[in-house]
Design brief:
12 helices; alpha/beta; 6-phosphogluconate dehydrogenase C-terminal fold; homodimer; 301 residues
């Protein structure tokens, strides 16, 4: 089942973590890698993110049974176009992008005839670049595969086994449904975090120094997410526009209702919501999707 | 300067932490405590949150030089009324509430003639109740005092020294300005977090199970804050209504602009904001107000 040769295109947080995780969990597999930025290639070689850092994408994918695109979702099509005609027969092409319908289309149209199985490991940190990756990033996280109907089931099983070897749990999902689910659990949270951090930075009545000093009241949590890679996130919003706007509409409706409750002094409405929202945290912790310690365990309690 | 006898009214996360911090940092001071809930009083005695748990508030404050109210901000007035006439001459009355103008008025009108210096240690976790407190909660955090003009400066200096002894940095501020600053750095972040968690729970197209499974994409960060004490937060929004609505208006304007940028495919506008918001995270970490490790250090990277 295992892939003997794996090519990683893009050697930032995700690509670097894939390379390191393969070395740790699949010692029988060898990895090649490529990044469009020569500085990133050099740093990737220094850190040993993959076994061989190549100078071109074509060189990296030559002989690979699995090609993993780890570039911003808006750059997938162009990155794939560079290896058109270089793929080994039977190679599986996948990616790690956060929006899936648009990425699937981009990969398929750049690589006609190839076996393309888009994927999204729901894992990451606010860091980016070749120094950010680590081998355990995918452990206990979910990886969603979105094979279009008619995809070779053996290839899907093989890619599933790959992600499971890296420590992830695998789920198969329709690309459109993925994009809706992730709009809620990832894209809207990022959009809101970027917005509130921007709002707080631009106020005249409250200084930037005050915002920083008193951020432990809750604001600092949002700044972590709002420190995420700008190119990656710009592309996510541009490629998952409909689902993001749909979910943003729901959020805004709910926020408006809460605003009215505050204006009217409707304490019961506030209390009801604030009580309901506790359960979901409990379930997330129970299912191992967050740290059970208070405050994410970040302080030395 | 130090207080020999300190009374803590309300023995949840904040009150319990004050008691434990005094024991650790001010061994020359003795503490009494009271909570309206008999179960909380029993648990407080078992954990030794204060030296003596009393059966009435009046008993707790008898002979105290400092009285610290640690109840929800909407309950401050009623809690203070219970000790009217029981305060020792020269006692300083303070609190730990998250809104300050309303609390200051409530305490002053319940305790006419008393030296009331409202305070807000900007610290906490999502836990609440008598098991949640710990001695180091205030270390490296800011505590804001909002003495009204004309307050005895010696009393302000004494209360400042008390909080500094507990590990906090002290800042003096006008109550109205405090309420505006904290609306941005704490109240709006909580309101947004409660809202998005509520929105995600109520969707029909995306199941609750999916929201939980894929929460590591960003959503889980918001669930921590949205697990905070419902009564405390209801009261914060009811007592800091004007500042919260003002800041919510700014946030909504900015969110609407971003929504338009997504609809129009304006990648530059998105990229510009997402780049700007990184700096503030860096400053927060540099100033010791958050963990420098990626992902708050919560994973075992």
């Amino acid at each position: 089942m295992t892939f003997t040769r794996i090519a990683v295109i893009g050697l930032g947080l995700l690509g670097g973590s894939v390379g390191l995780a393969v070395r740790e969990s699949l010692p029988g597999s060898s990895t090649t890698g490529y990044d469009a930025d020569p500085d990133v290639r050099q740093r990737a070689a220094e850190r040993g993110l993959v076994d061989t850092v190549c100078d071109t994408a074509a060189e990296a994918v030559a002989g690979a049974e699995l090609v993993v695109f780890c570039v911003p979702v808006g750059a997938m099509g162009a990155a794939a176009a560079k290896i058109a005609g270089e793929l080994s027969p039977g190679a599986i092409v996948t990616d790690v992008g956060s929006s899936k319908a648009a990425v699937g289309e981009a990969l398929r149209s750049a690589l006609p005839g190839a076996t393309v199985i888009p994927a999204h490991p729901v894992a990451g940190t606010e860091r980016s670049g070749p120094d950010a990756g680590f081998a355990s990033l995918f452990r206990h996280r979910w990886c969603i595969l979105t094979p279009p109907s008619g995809t070779d089931q053996a290839a899907v099983a093989r890619l599933s086994a790959f992600w499971e070897a890296l420590g992830a749990n695998v789920e198969i999902m329709d690309a459109a449904h993925h994009d809706l689910v992730l709009a809620v659990t990832s894209h809207i949270p990022h959009l809101i975090a970027y917005t509130i951090v921007g709002t707080a930075s631009d106020l005249e009545e409250v200084t930037r120094g005050e915002v920083i000093k008193y951020s432990a009241g809750g604001f600092r949590d949002f700044t972590r997410i709002a420190a995420s890679d700008p190119v990656m996130w710009r592309d996510v919003f541009l490629t998952n526009r409909e689902a993001v706007l749909e979910m943003l509409g729901r959020f805004t409706e709910d926020l408006t209702a809460l605003q009215r409750a505050i204006r009217n002094g409707d304490g019961d409405a506030l209390f009801d919501l604030f009580t309901r929202t506790r359960d979901i945290r409990r379930s997330i912790v129970e299912q191992g999707q967050d740290d059970a310690r208070p405050d994410f365990g970040r302080s030395d309690h």
